Amino acid sequence: PLYGRPRRALRRPPSAAMDVSKLCSNISGAMGIGGGSDAEDVHVKKQRIREGLEKAFAAKQRYTSDGLVTMEAGEAETLTLPEGSVESVVEAMYGAYDEDCDRWLDVLAKVEPALASGASVSVNNAEMGGDPSPGVRKVLCVRYRPKSETVVTEIAEGQRLCLTEESESVIEATYGSGDTWENVLIPLQSALIGAGGRGVVVSNEVLGCDPVPGESKVLRVTRLPGRTRLAFKVHTSKELATFQVVAPWLFHSLCDTVGVTQEALFTSLTSDELKGGEKQASGKSGEIFWFSADNRYVLKTISDGEIATLVKMLPEYTEYLAEHKDSLLTRYLGVFSLSDNGVKTQFVIMNNIFEGAPHLDVMYDLKGTTEDRWVDPEPGKCLKDNNFAEVTMYFEDETARGIHAAISQDTKFLQKQSIMDYSLMVAIANGSAVGFDAAGRTRAYSKFIGGLPMKKTDGVLNQTPQEGVVFIGMVDMLVTYGWKKVAANVIKSNTIGWQDEIDTVAPERYAARFRGCFAKKLLGDSDKLVVTEVSPDLFESPMPALGRSGGTAAFFKVTYKEGAERLPEQQSPLYWIGKDLARAKDEVDFYEKSKALKGTPGFEMLDWMTPYLGVCRAQCEVQEGQPPKSLEVMLLRNGRDGCKTCRMLDIKIGQVTAVGGWQKKSSFEAWLQVNTIDVNTNSDREGFRLEGFDSPPPSVLSVEDHLESGAFANSAVGLKKLKRLNLQRMTASQFVSHFLELHDASSSSYAKRHGDCKPPAAADDPSVLSIVETQEVVLLTCVQQLAALVLACRAAPVPQQWIGSSVMLAFDCATRPAREILQRSSGMDAARVHIFDWGRSELNTVCAHERLEEAVKDERWKYWGYYCGGVARLLFDCIRLYLTRFWHEKRSVFCTVWDKDKIMADDFIGRCALALEARDGDEELSDFGGSPVVSGMLRGTKAKLNVGLKQRALPEGSRLRDCWALRVHGANSLPSQDLTSENDVFVEVQGLDVGPAEVADMSSASRQNFARDGAHQTTVAVDAHSPVFEEEFEIATLTESARAAVVGAFAVAAGMEGMPEEEIAGEMHSCVPTRLGDAPDQQELASLQARFATRCFPGLLDG
C-alpha cells in the first residue's frame, strides 16, 4: 500500500498483494539482489520491487493530476524542502512500508511549520511523536504544493553542474549569452546520466554547440522545484534500497503518444508473476528478459550507455512515432533503476512484439549480416540470419509494400540517431491463419505488429507454401556507432571481415544493408517464385554424367524418349542438358523471373539468355560404377545439340567479377578473386576474360601440351590453374582467332605426338564453304549477334548487377556450313551467341529498382556499366578482327616465329614478309629492324622459314575474293632462346594491306602488336630446333557487295541505323583502325575501345 489521499482507496486485496509479491520475487531473484535464502530475505526482495513500481506509477500519475511534489527520508535521516519554494505542505505521514496504512502516523501538524520555512526535520520517533511500528525502520513521506512551477539556475561556462538525482527534473536547458541562446536539453540530460552523479563541466564540447563564439556563455537550467529524480526509498527490516524512475516525464509523453495508459501498464506488470528471468540463449549481451503475465510487455536489463542513448533520442523518438503510426520500432515505455548495497540494476519496459501469439514454432533475430549468425537449432532457441538463409516469406502485396516502407523509414530514423546493430525479430507460428484474430491479435502499436498471415518457402526447390502467422518488429535499437564499434570495424574488416559481412559497420551502411536484405526475404504474393516443374517421364533414365562446369556444377545428358511430347523447335532428342541444382540454386530464380519478363519492352536482352525449360527430379549417374541418385536438375539448352563438335567460348564479362557481400560472396573471396585473377587477366585490360574453351583447336591444345612439360607437370591442381590462367590472359583478338582456326594440322609435330588433326571437310567439296569462308561467316554472325545484344542492353529500363556472368560464342567446328547459307534472307546462323551463368547475378525490374536506396541504385549503375562496357569492348575486338582479316585487299603475308614461354612473354625469333605470288621454299628470317637472324656456334647460319604460297579459287557467289593459301612447312637453324632447353616454336601468319617493302622496319611496338593481333597461329612444336608444321592458312578479301553486313552491324551497335552506308563505314573505320599505317599503341587502342563503348552506351559510360 502507498501513502495517498484517501489512503484506504489505495489498499489492495490480500490475493493481489500475494501476486505482486510473486512478481517482485521473480525480478529481484533474477537480478541477484538482497542475498540470502531465508523467508525474510525473500520477503525483502519482493517488497523492494513491488513498492518501487507502485510508487513510480502512483507518483507519475499523481503529479500529472494534482501538481504535488513528493519527498521522503528514512528513519535517522533529515528532510529539508527548498527554501522559499513551498506554498503549502499538504500531507506528512510516518510509518513502515511493511505495515498497513492504518498504522501510519499523520504528522502534518508537527513538521509543516519547519518544512514550510525551509528548516530541516529529523526523522525519528521522538520528533514524530510516536512509534507506529516498533522494531521496524520507518519513513517520513511528505507531499507539498510548490509556489512556482519551475526554478531557474544559471551556471557559467567552465563551472561544474551537479544535479545528481535531480537531472530528470530538468525540463529546459539553454546555452548562450545576450540574445543568442541554443536549446541543449538533450545533450545536457545525456551528459548528466552518463556522468553517473559526478556532474558535468559546462563547455561547448559537452553541450555540442558554440552559440556565441569567442564570448563567455552561461547554461540556464529550468527544473521542477524540489523534485528528486523520482527516487523512492524502499523500506525493509534491514536497510533502505532506492528505486528510481528515469526520464519519467519524457516517457509519460511517449506512452500517451503510443496509447498506453499508466494504469494499464502498471496492471500488466503487477497482476501476476513475471515469466522468464533468463538470458537469451543466442545473445551476446548477457541481458536478462522477463515477460508480463498477460504477455503484453517485456522487461530487459539495460546498460548506462543504452539509457543515455534512449534518453537522448526520446523527444525525436516520440515525435517520430506520432508521425509514423505503423512503425516497426520497439515502443520503449519506461526505464527503471534499483540500487541496493552499491549494486545498480537497470531495466527497460517495452511492448512485446509477439503479443497475441497462441504459440511460436520458431524465432529469428536477424541483422542482415553473416558474421557469427548461425545457431545450432534446438527447441526454444532464437535462430539467426544464416539459419534464415533459405526462408522466404510472402504477404499480400499491399502488406509487403507497407512493411518495406516501414523498414525504410525506421532505418533512416535510426541512421539519423547514429544507431546500428539493431535486429528484426521474426517469430513464426505455423499453421493456418484462419481464426487467428480470435487468438488475441492486436494492432495497438502498428498494423504490422501483432501477427500477420503469410506463406513461406524453405529454399528455391521447396515450392509448396507453408501457411502461418509471423510476428515482426525491430529491437535492440540503442547501440550507437561509437569509438568501440569503429575500432571493432577496423579489426573485423581485416580479419573475419574477409569471410563474412561483419555487423560492426557505420549506420548508413548498416541501414542500407538491412533494407536490402529484407527486400529479398519479405515479398508480396506477386513476387512469389514458381519453379517450372518438368516431368522426368519425358526423358531416358538414368541420365549419364557429362562433366563439370568450372569444376563445380555437374552436367548430365538429357535425352527425350521416343514419342515424348515436345515443342516443334525441340525435335532433337538432345535439345536439353541437365545441370545439378546442388551447385546452381541461385540461377533458378533468375531463369524463372526472366521467363516471366520475356516479351516485356526494354527487357529484350533476356532473349539472348540460354533457353531454359524448368527443373526436373530424375535419376542421375553421379559416379561411375555407383547406383544412380535422385537429383534435381535444371534443364538448359544444350549448346552442343546439332553440332558434330561444338567449339565454345565462355567469356566472363566485367572488369570486376566478384563483389564482397553480394549474392553470398564473402569479402575475402571477392578480394582474393579481384586481386589475384581480375587484375592479372584480361578482365583488367579489356573488361572481360576467357574462362572456358570447349573443343579448342590444335593451336591451343599444343600450348597446353607445352605447359604440361614444365614444373607443374606433377601437380594436377597447379597444371589446371596454369592452363586456365593461359586462357584468362588472352586478349579477345587472340582467343577469337583461336576460336576460328580450322586449318589442317595433321602433319605437324604436335599431331604426330597426339594423333590426327584433320580439317572438317575435303578442301575441294564445292557444296560447303571453304575454311576461310567458314571463318568469315562465323565471325560475321558473332559480330551481328553481339551488336544486337548491345542494342538490347542499351534499351534496358533499369540497371542490372550481373556479376561474373558470361557471354557464349559457339559453332560446329567439325562441319562446314552448306554453301546455301549465303543465300538466306533471314540472316546466317553459322554461330550462336548466348548470355548465361547467373549464380552471382540478380534480375532487376522497374518496380524492384524503385524500392532501392539511392546508394544501391548507384551501385547497380556502376556494375551495369562494367557489364555493358565489357560487351561493347568484346564487340569492338570482333569487328576489328573481322575488318583486319577481310575488309582490305591484301598485298603481303607477314610471318613471325616465336618461342613459347609458360609464364613470361613469348620470345621473338624472327620474321619475314612475302609478296602475294606463288612460291615454295625457304625464306630468310630477320629481326624487327631488318637485320638477319643467325644461329650456330659462330653465328654464321641464317635462320629460315620454309613456306609455300599459292592462289586458291573460290566458287561463284562467294562473299570473298582473292584467296591465297600459305602452307608453313617448317623452320630450320633457329637460334636458341632458352639456356637449358630447345625452343618451343610456333608461327603467326597475318595478311597485310601493304607490300613487303613497307614492312622492312617493324621496330615500333604498335606495328608489332598490329601484326600479332588476330593473326593465324600454328601449333607449338615443343623442344624443336628445326620444327615441322605442315599447316595451311587461307587469307581473302570481302567483295564489295558483302561489306554491307558488317557496316549494318556497326550501325546497330553505334546507334546509327538509317544513316547512309558511306557515313557509317567512315565512322566505323574512324573508331576501329584496321590498317598497318594507322596501328595504335596500347594506350591509344584502349582509348578507341572506350570511345566505341561510349558510342554504344551514351550516358552510361560517359567519362
Can you describe what's shown?
The structure is a single chain. The chain is an alpha+beta fold and 1103 residues long. Helices cover 30% and strands 26% of the residues. Strands 13-14-18-19-17-16-15 form a 7-stranded antiparallel β-sheet, sandwiched between helices. A hairpin with a 7-residue loop joins strand 45 and strand 46. The longest helix has 33 residues, at 854-886. The chain starts with 13 loop residues before the first helix and ends in a 7-residue tail after the last helix. 42% of the residues are buried. Mean pLDDT is 82; it is low at 1-39, 59-65 and 226-240.
Give a concise summary.
The protein has 1103 residues and is of the alpha+beta class.
- Overall pLDDT level: 82
- Termini separation comes to 77 Å
Low-confidence stretches: 1-39, 59-65, 226-240
The percent range for helix content is 25-40%
Q: What fraction of the residues are assigned to beta strands by DSSP?
A: 25-35%
The overall strand count is 49
Q: Strands, helices and their partners?
A:
Elements: H1 14-31, H2 39-66, E1 69-74, E2 78-80, E3 86-95, E4 105-106, H3 108-116, E5 120-122, H4 125-128, E6 139-146, E7 151-156, E8 160-161, E9 170-177, E10 180-183, H5 185-195, E11 200-201, H6 204-207, E12 218-223, E13 231-235, E14 240-246, H7 248-258, H8 262-270, E15 275-279, E16 288-291, E17 297-301, H9 304-323, E18 332-340, E19 343-351, E20 362-366, E21 382-383, E22 391-395, H10 397-416, E23 419-420, E24 423-430, E25 452-458, E26 466-475, E27 479-480, H11 483-493, H12 507-521, E28 522-524, E29 545-549, E30 553-557, E31 576-580, H13 585-597, E32 612-620, E33 629-637, E34 646-653, H14 667-676, H15 682-686, E35 688-694, H16 698-708, H17 716-728, H18 732-740, H19 749-754, H20 771-794, E36 801-802, E37 806-812, E38 832-836, E39 841-842, H21 846-850, H22 854-886, E40 892-899, E41 907-915, E42 919-924, E43 934-935, E44 941-942, E45 944-952, E46 960-972, E47 985-992, H23 1005-1012, E48 1016-1017, E49 1028-1038, H24 1044-1054, H25 1061-1071, H26 1082-1096
